[in-house]
Design brief:
Blueprint: E1 3-9, E2 12-18, H1 23-40, H2 48-53, H3 64-79, H4 96-113, E3 119-123, E4 126-130, E5 139-144, E6 152-158, E7 161-167, E8 176-177, E9 182-183, E10 187-194, H5 197-209, H6 213-219, E11 225-230, E12 235-237
Antiparallel strand pairs: 1-2, 2-3, 3-4, 4-7, 5-6, 7-10, 8-9, 10-11, 11-12
Helix pairs in contact: 1-4, 3-4, 4-5, 5-6
Amino acid sequence: MPVRRVEHIMGLPISVDLRDGDAALAERAFASLRQADAQFSPFKPDSEVSRLDRGELTREELTPDLVEVLSLCDWYEDSTGGAFTARVPGRGLDPCAVVKGWAVQRAADILREGGASSYCLNAGGDVVTAGEPEPGKPWRVGVRHPDLADQVCVVLGVRDGAVATSALYERGQHILDGRTGQPVTGILSVTVFSDDLAIADTTATAAFALGRDGIEWAASQEDCEVFIVDEDRKVFSSPGLPVHIC
């Protein structure tokens, strides 16, 4: 029987639809997510991130996992010329834009390594899938319309891959341009499809932080396909995007 479960972790609902595993395997995946929240949250004073931000840890004292996360932050900051950053002025160290995708991808890897071949992990709309929910059918991932909450603007058919979206409709102007500290303009929604959710999620956020310049930048990223809506409601879609035809 499928295992379906939802928990509120990292400030958002995370669900699993596991078609060929068991409850114990699902618990291992969720345990890794809870551990990531405890380790990386800038809102928990005893987390490794908070301790680093307060100067209680040196770079040499960090765990390999945090070194990996911070290295990803540095790479995307360099690639976007500072538009993406884990250190927005006035906020302190906040690697959450990388952590969510990284942690959920790791949880998905736990499912795969535990023998599961058909599952969907959904973290607030950012999704990792494997296999098929039914023979011959992909997992269908809807991308919400940026203006109409009850509609989707595209549906992707995904078997083994990840989809992430950065947009204004859930949290308003929460993405800032790290170069100016100001809210981003020019873009309403950025969706990225990739093999790995850490890449898909961070690329979507970084592209959004770049504003209109993020359209070309995201499309140029290796192993990424994009679906972007700008503030004029013009759509930009990669030719390799796995659009599902109903």
